[in-house]
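Record type: monomer structure entry
Structure origin: computed from sequence
Chain ID: A
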Amino acid sequence: QVQLVESGGGLVQAGGSLRLSCAASERTLNRYAVGWFRRAPGKERESVAAISTSSDSTYYADSVKGRFSISRDNAKNTVYLQMNSLKPEDTAVYYCATSSTSSRLGLILRRAATYDYWGQGTQVTVSS
């Protein structure tokens, strides 16, 4: 049973930074695409960022481009989401998910249906 665990969320002031981590058991993350999604109160889940299985392609939502960065640490079997210049509208529960897709296309990597295992989420709250 694959388990994904997100960590690193918390309360931060606008303009601040957080780094989210996604760690996996029973799955070597560098063999899978990993996506970060978020769900804000009263809103639908949306894709934030993703990294392809080969790590040579990344996807970012327009709302986070230039502020967020996704990366892997294969030695730690962890994928990170570095979030800088945070805004109140970034407040949400953030989820990581994995997929066996070999696609490098953003339109595939940003789809929730592409992913088969999901974490429980970590809360990010950005105060104004």
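Annotation 1: The radius of gyration is 13 Å.
Annotation 2: The mean pLDDT is 95.
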